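U., I forgot to send this yesterday:
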Amino acid sequence: MLPWRVLRYPVVFGSCLMAYFGAFSFRRTYFKSDVEEARDKNISRAQTDHIKLEATQQKVRMELAHDKAQIQK
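Result:
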């Protein structure tokens, strides 16, 4: 068996590499960007933009309805 002094650097380096790639894999799995999620769901960029536009329009409509209700009071 090789002594710890000889194995120290390869073991530490290998552990660091495993931690780095493990964290990268964890981020990719649990913290996906909108583009990555759309790709996973096979949604095209145009469809994604359309969905975002609809959400924005719905938000504006709700704000306008709220403003109208405030004015009518």
